[in-house]
Amino acid sequence: MLKNKLLIVALISAFCGMELIAQNNTNSPYSRYGYGILDDNSFGMGRAMGGIGYGLRSSRQINVKNPASYAEMDSLTFLFDFGVNLQNVWMKEAPTGAKESQINGNLEYIAMQFPLGKNVAASVGLLPFSYVGYSYGGTIANGAVSRLGEGGINQVYGGLSVNVYRGFSLGANISYLFGNIVHDNYIIPSAENSSSSVSEYKLHVSDFHFDFGAQYTQKLNEKDKFTIGAVYSPRKTLLGHEYSSRQVYDDSSSVPQQEGADTLTLKGRYDIASTYGLGFTFSRNNLFTVGADVTFQDWKDARFAGRTDVLNNRLKISVGGEYIPDYLSRSYHKRMRYRAGAFYNQSYLRINDAANGTTANMREAGVSCGLGLPIRSDKSVVNFALEYVNRNTTPQTLITENYLRISVSLTFNEFWFFKRQFE
Questions:
Q1: Facing residues of 16 across strands?
Q2: Fewer CB atoms inside 10 A, N or C side of the chain?
Q3: Does the global pTM surpass 0.85?
Q4: How far apart are CA 241 and CA 320, in angstroms?
Q5: Are 37 and 26 in contact (CB under 8 A)?
Q6: Strand-pair partners of 206
């Protein structure tokens, strides 16, 4: 009875906060470029393990990174998962030495998973695709400029997975992408009797996207098993609209003296790159698990604002592991899940430094650790992850960002499909 009440409370709280996912979850000036900072949709278990997921296969955790994993759950179980995070970022600008620190947090995702038969399972949820959020200024000839950005792209997904034959499973997600990315530029003149202006650019996305996955598990002996997983997402030409407008204000009036606006369709001008992912996990007695992922996205050939030379190909490598001393022990700390991992990400963003007329490429590196705390009465787990991420550019160092991020997720594992024999 208690666990059902807890689940109802969590469902109500999560769905009441669904709109928070669309809000900013970054303060990075680098989110001004491309579609912003991409989210890899790593849930509680994988987040603390460097973000791995292609080879993860668990009956107790949702793994949206590879839809083929859904079919691992048994036919009596219902899973519900939602996560939140809180992060602090320290930024330092290389040319000036200026420093800044900011804190933000948000609801990250909501997902659920349930069986449709003995070898078939489905999953649905709400996830972020990218984040945009920044605010900074600078000087220009005869004035100053202030740049603000907000928004991002979200996705509602539905997925299906089937155990095809003896350890081999296939899966697919269909996602509806939606959201707005807004960039505002405010120009304030230094001379008197001059006009100020506001330019706004908005990207509105409304389209569908597909992800495909496969996993194969081979038992090596009585204790050990090896799982290999692969994912593929085809390139997508986005649908939606882009809007641009400019308003000029005379200093003596708040009413715009001149207005201009334009609307264009996104089709043929904006793409989402193809994604290729490969990963594996090795597990012993379901107590010790290690794994690695490699992700490649061909953004260099994807169109952005009608051009194919403004983004870089993306490569991410992740490694991680989990250790459970004894999940059958009466000692609570022996049933806890201890996790750690690391990753390196060659970002898709290409940074244009207009002041120096140069471009720079963004790199990320991070380490993570965390705990999975089982709820005593059932199979549900509270997941904690602590991440440190360094973000920088090469060959020119522009702004260095250091993140300390705490993520918390709650996975409810319920026997909802069990038919009682006695009342």
A1: none
A2: C
A3: yes
A4: 40
A5: yes
A6: 178
